[in-house]
Amino acid sequence: MPGQARSRPSPRSGVWLSLILAFQFCVEVHERHSLCITSSLGFSGWMEVSSDFPLAAALLDRLTHHCHVLLFQGKSYRFQESRERLTQTAASVATTP
Questions:
Q1: What CA–CA distance (Å, rounded) separates 30 from 15?
Q2: C-beta atoms surrounding 45 within 10 Å
Q3: Residue among 48, 56, 45 at smallest CA distance from 23
Q4: pLDDT per residue as tens, the chain (97 positions)
Q5: Domain boundaries, the chain
């Protein structure tokens, strides 16, 4: 929540370790290589998931420096296809004697 102090995640936390590794990777490739990242989270979602605001902010700063952000809105084709497969599977199981 805004205005509340966040506790620093444990160094043994999987989320914290993943964030550290992602930051180190971005530091290594920053302005030397192209990088494409896809996410179903918006920028604010990264802050909520990370629980380490300064590190997440630094990571996003590196990722968004000289970047092109493409926002796609609408239904996910993968989600729609998986839902159709589940419906077909359920229908075939229901009609099997």
A1: 22
A2: 11
A3: 56
A4: 455 555 555 555 677 788 888 888 888 888 888 888 888 788 888 777 777 788 888 888 888 888 888 887 877 788 888 888 888 888 777 776 6
A5: 14-95
pLDDT at res. 1: 45
Q: What is the pTM of this model?
A: 0.54
CA distance 11 to 49: 15
- CA atoms within 13 Å, Cβ hemisphere of 4: 8
d(CA 74, CA 76): 7
DSSP calls for the chain: -TTSPPPPPPTT-HHHHHHHHHHHHHHHHTTTS------SS-HHHHHHHHS-HHHHHHHHHHHHTT-------S--HHHHHHHHHHHHHHHHHHH--
